[in-house]
Amino acid sequence: MQVFYSDTFTLPLPEKHRFPGSKYRMLRERLISDGLVREDELMESPLAQTEDILRAHDADYVEAFETGTLDEKAIRRIGFPWSKQLVTRTRATAGGAVAAAEAALEDGIAGQLAGGTHHAHRDFGSGYCIYNDFAIAALSLIETGRLSRIAIIDLDVHQGDGNAAILKNHPQTFVFSMHGEKNFPFRKHASDLDVALPDAIEDTAYLDTLDEYLPAVFAFAPDLVLYQTGVDGLSEDKLGRLNLTHQGLMARDKRVLSECLSRGIPVSMGIGGGYADPIEASVEAYANTYRVAKSLYGF
To answer: How many angstroms separate the CA atoms of 144 and 256, rounded?
Structure first.
């Protein structure tokens, strides 16, 4: 299994910034220490090519972000202060998504220890998302003729409004988002399939709901699944408002990955959100996704 990472430097965030940037390195170290991923399976994410970024994003927005000339309101909406490191990290996240998707086509499954930046729209960023990595990867593979149909399974607790907005006019994609009804973003964009969940939902009801709607993804007959494995539905999460356990999230992952495996559909994973306090709970949940994947695929 090929796994891509981009945690080789730390973003210069203000003291007490609420985004837990340390989780990426912590996850990589946890996967190695638990024997879930070997050192030789880890590869540094390549920087995305401009032509791929522009398949999903407006050229003026990309130029303004990369030159540090976005206005203050746009920067506040993103949630990170601008820096050259942020530009590099953003390109690496997008490039890692493309590389992981291509690796999944080779091996059946691949992952990126970042990504799932589903709040990024064509001409603006939002909610810690600047470039939409899954939209970039999907459009790269489709518009170059390598694949015909790609599905996104987005199980982050926050709706993938950027995925929905960017891909709404692309009949070769199918976006499924199952998310908290009352959570961010407060203005939702219609995906191909949206399932809104009540606050404080627990494992059994969550999994029953997933079982009801997941078949629609496979009725689309995708050539590839991009799986946003956000763990912010965990009960310990500060931003999640759901009440899922580690066991519930592992059962979720097993359902999704088993369905992909049984149908021979390659799957590429991005980790999505996780804001537990302490953050170690999110890292454990992210690692558990790889635990489930290893048990199913035997890599």
So the answer is: 27
* DSSP annotation of 49: P
Q: How far apart are CA 153 and CA 220, in angstroms?
A: 12
Is the CB of residue 265 less than 8 Å from the CB of residue 98? no
Residue 171 class from Cβ within 10 Å (0-12 exposed, 13-18 middle, 19+ buried)? exposed
Alpha helices in the chain (DSSP H): 23-33, 50-56, 59-67, 72-78, 84-107, 133-143, 161-167, 203-213, 215-219, 246-263, 280-297
* Cα radius of gyration (the chain): 17
Q: How does 206-239 read in b/e, with b if 16+ C-beta sit within 10 Å?
A: bbeebeeebeebbebebbbbbbbbbbbbbbbbeb
Backbone angles phi, psi at 194, to 5 degrees: -115, 135
Give all domains of the chain, ordered by start, each with its CATH number. 2-6+21-297 (3.40.800.20)
106-151 per-position pLDDT tens digit? 999 999 999 999 999 999 999 999 999 999 999 999 999 999 999 9
d(CA 56, CA 137): 9
Sign of CA dihedral 237, 241, 244, 249: negative
- Cα–Cα distance between 280 and 61 in angstroms, integer? 35
Non-local CB neighbours of 161 within 8 Å, separated by 6+ positions: 118, 119, 121, 126, 185, 187, 188, 189
- The residue type found at 168 is K
Query: In this predicted structure, what is the pLDDT of residue 106?
Result: 97
Give the tens place of pLDDT for each residue, 189-229. Answer: 999 999 999 999 999 999 999 999 999 999 999 999 999 99
Mean pLDDT confidence for 10-32:
87
- Residue count of the chain, please give it: 299
Q: By 3-state DSSP, what share of the chain in percent is helix, strand and coil, each rounded to 5?
A: 45, 15, 40
